[in-house]
Write a structure and sequence with these properties.
The protein is mainly alpha-helical. It has one domain: Tetratricopeptide repeat domain (Serine Threonine Protein Phosphatase 5, Tetratricopeptide repeat). Helix 3 packs antiparallel against helix 4, helix 4 runs antiparallel to helix 5 and helix 7 packs antiparallel against helix 8.
Length: 165
C-alpha cells in the first residue's frame, strides 16, 4: 500500500528545495592547501551557496602558507562582512598569515578579533598569538600573552624561547 507521507531520506543533491549545500566536505577538498589557489579561489567565489566555516578556514589556511599570506586576512574580512562567525580554528591560520608577513598591526587587529569572539583562552590560539607577536618584534606583548596563558605546556615554552632566539 502506497502512502503519501514524506520520505525520511535526504533530498536529492539536485533538488532546488534542498536547504544545505551538496557535499560541503567534498567541495572543501577542492580548496585544500595542496590545490591551485587561483582555481580554488575561483571555485570558492562561484559557489551557489554560502560557504561554511570549514570551507572558509580551508582557504584561509591555504593562503596563510602561500607566497601571498595577505590574502588570508582579506578572506577573513570578506567572511565577516558576510556574517560568518570565526571559530577557534580560524585564528591560528590568521596568526600564521600575520607571522608570515610579518605585520605587527595585522597581529594586533587579529588579537582584537580574538578578544571580541572570546578565543584568547584557547591554548592553541594563545600560543599562535605569542608566536605572532614574537615574529613581529613585539617581545613585550609576546611575554605578556605568555604570562597570562592558562597552564603552559612544553609547546608554549618552546614558542616563547624560540621568540627570544
Amino acid at each position: 500500500m502506497h502512502h503519501n507521507t514524506p520520505s525520511k531520506t535526504s533530498p536529492r543533491p539536485d533538488d532546488p528545495h534542498r536547504s544545505h549545500p551538496p557535499r560541503p566536505f567534498a567541495a572543501s577538498r577542492l580548496l585544500s592547501p595542496f590545490a591551485d589557489l587561483t582555481l580554488a579561489s575561483r571555485i570558492f567565489s562561484s559557489l551557489p551557496y554560502s560557504p561554511n566555516i570549514f570551507m572558509w578556514n580551508t582557504l584561509i589556511r591555504a593562503h596563510a602558507s602561500s607566497p601571498n599570506p595577505h590574502h588570508s586576512l582579506c578572506l577573513h574580512v570578506s567572511m565577516r562582512k558576510l556574517g560568518a562567525i570565526p571559530g577557534k580554528h580560524t585564528f591560528p591560520f590568521l596568526l600564521k598569515a600575520c607571522s608570515n608577513i610579518p605585520s605587527l598591526p595585522a597581529c594586533t587587529q587579529v588579537h582584537t578579533h580574538m578578544l571580541k569572539f572570546g578565543m584568547c583562552f584557547d591554548s592553541h590560539v594563545a600560543n599562535g598569538l605569542v608566536r605572532c607577536y614574537s615574529v613581529s618584534g613585539d617581545f613585550a606583548r609576546a611575554r605578556l600573552m605568555f604570562d597570562e596563558m592558562p597552564p603552559r605546556s612544553l609547546s608554549h615554552w618552546t614558542t616563547m624561547v624560540c621568540g627570544y632566539a
